[in-house]
Amino acid sequence: MEKAPAATATESVRTAVAQAASWLDTHPDKALAQAEAILRRTGRLAPAELLVGQALRRLGKPRAALARLGPLARQHPDVAAILWELAQAARDAGALPQAIAALERLTRLQPAAAAGWFLLARALRAAGRDSDAWRADLSGVHAASRDRDLLEAAMAMNEGRLDEADAMLLTRSKRLRDDPAGTRLRGEVQWRRGDMNAALALVERALDLAPGFDLARDFLIRLLLQNNRLPDALAHSEILARSPIHNPGYDLIRASVLVRLGDQEGASAIYQRLLRERPDQPQVWQNLGHALKTLGRQADAVHAYRQAVDHRPTMGEAWWSLANLKTVKLDADDIATMEQALATLAQDGQGEGEDAFHLHFSLGKAWEDRKADEAAFRHYSLGNQMRRAMIQHDADEFSAEVAAAAATFTAPFLATMGDGGCPSPDPIFIVGLPRAGSTLVEQILSSHSQVEGTMELPEMMVIAGRLQSRVDDGEFPDFRAMIASLSRADRQRLGEEYVEQTRVHRQSGKPRFIDKMPNNWQHVGLIKLILPNASIIDARRHPMGCCFSAWKQHFARGQAFSYDLHDIGRYYRDYVALMAAYDAAAPGQVYRVIYERMVADTVGEVDRLLAYLGLDFEEACIAFWRNERAVRTASSEQVRQPIYTSGVDHWQRFSPWLTPLADALGPLVDAYPDVPAN
Questions:
Q1: What pLDDT shows up at residue 5?
Q2: Pfam families of this UniProt entry (predicted)?
C-alpha cells in the first residue's frame, strides 16, 4: 500500500531535519541553509528553528542565534534542548542574565544533568557571583556521582582494571570535552598507574573547568603534597577552606599542609578550633598532640594524647605517641588498658593491624621503663613482626644499590666529572642512621646565630629518585652511566632546584640551613656533584646501640629496614661501607660526629664541628636545650635537656636477645668507631 501524501511529507521533513543536524559540527553553514529551507516549506517548526539557532552560534553569530532562540524558548519553556542552546548563545553574546535565567530553569527541569550545573557555574562566575557559582559546581558534582558511565569507570578503577577504566574515560572525553567529573576521575586512574605528571595535569584541568569542585581540589592537594609542592598545596588548601559547604576534613588537610611547612602553631590553632566545636574526636586530639610535642609543649601534648586514648582506648598510635615522649612513663593502669585494647582488637579481627603493632611498641616501652626487659623485648618483637609483614624491604636489592653507588663515586670518576653544580654554601646535610644522635647535632647547630634548623627535608631524595627512574625506565644501562651523563649545566640546574625547593622551609633569614634527612647518606656523591660547597655531617653511633634503638622505635614513615634485627644490621653495614668508600674517594668531604665522643666532650666536639663549618664558636651551641625551635623527630624531648650519658650503653641490658643483630653487624661491633679493613 502506498503511503499517504501527508505522511510522506512529514517523513521527508524529518529526514531533512536529521540531515541538517548531522552537519552542525562539521558544516554549520550547510545545516543553516537546510534548516532555513525547511522553515520556508513548513512555516514554524520548532526543531528547524532550534537548528537555525545552533548553526548560527557555531558560525560565530551568537546575537543572531539569540534572536531566533529567545522567542522559541518562550513558546517552549520546558524543552531542555532549547534552554541549553539559548544559554550558550546568550553566554557567547555577553547576555549573562539571560544565560543564567535559562540555565537555572534548565537545572530545575533536569537536576540530574551535571553539564547544566557546570555551565550555570561558569555563567555565574562570569557574572561575579562566585559563591553561587561554587554551589552550582557542587550540584554538578553531586549530579555526576550518579552518572552511569562514571560509575562503571570508577568500579573498573577500584577493581584494578586501570586500562579498562582509562579507555572508558578517554572515549567519554571525546564525546564530552568539558567534563570536570570525568577528567578528575581519569586523573585518579593515572595516579594509580603511577603517572604523577598526567594525574596532576588532569586534576588541574578538572578544577579549571569547575573551580568549585571541592573533592577534586582535595585530591589535588594530596597529589601536591606527594610531590612536595608545598606552597601550591597551601594555596589550594586556603581556597578549599572557603568552601560554602563546611567540611572539617578540609580544615584537617590545611592543617596537614601547615605541619609539612613547619607551621605547627597554625596547625594547632586549627585543631583546637575543631575540638572546641566537637571535643569527641580522638584523631584530632592526636594530631594536636603531635603539633604540641613538636613545639616543645610537652604537658599539653600529654593531655592531648590522653584525650585521644580516653575517647578511643584502642587507638594504638596515640598510645605510642605517649610512650614515644621519652620523658613519659606509662603506669600499671596504662599497661592494663593497653592489654585490654589488644584483646578488644583481637576479638574484632584487628589483632594484626596498625593499632595492634602500635600497642605492642607502647607496651615494650612501658615494660622497659619498669626494667622488665624480657617482657619489653617480647612486645617489641611482636610489634616489629607485625610491622615488617606490612612493608616491602629487600635487603639484597638495597645492598646492590649501595654497591652501585660506591662503585660509581670513585676518585677517578669524580676527577672525570670535574667542577660543576650550584655553588651555594647554604645547605648543611646531617646524614646517618636514625637514632644516631643527628637530632642532637641539629639542635646544637641550629642554636648558632648563622644556622637555621628546618626538618628532615625530602627534596634531595626526590631528585635522586627521579634520576634513578631514568635507569629503571631503560634510558641508561646502569646508575653509573646515568650519573656520568649529567653535564655541568645539568648539575647546576639540579643544585639550584634543591636550593629553590627548600627555600619554603627557611623562615629566619640565616645564611645556612640544615637538612636532617638521615637517608641522604645514600646520596653523598650526588650531593657533592650538584652542591659542591654544601657541608655533609655524618652522625654515627655504636652499631649495637644505634640499631637496637631504631628497631624498638616505630617510625611514621620511610625506615622500612628497621623492623628486623638482621635487616637493620645489614643496613648499618651498607651505610658504613658506602661512607668509607666515599671517604677514600674524596677525603675530608664528609665530617664525622661520633655520638659517644659528643657525649663525653661536648665543648671540644662542638668547637671542632663549628670549625669544619667555618663558623665561630658560640656559647648558645653548648646550651642547646634552651633553643625553643620546633623539633619533629623521635628525639624531640631528649634534645630539650642537657646531654646525659645513660643512653650510651643502654642496649647491653638487652644483649641476651640481640644475637641476630650482632651476627649481621659482624666485625663492625668490635672495630667501632673505626671501620674494618674489609
A1: 42
A2: Sulfotransfer_3, TPR_15, TPR_16
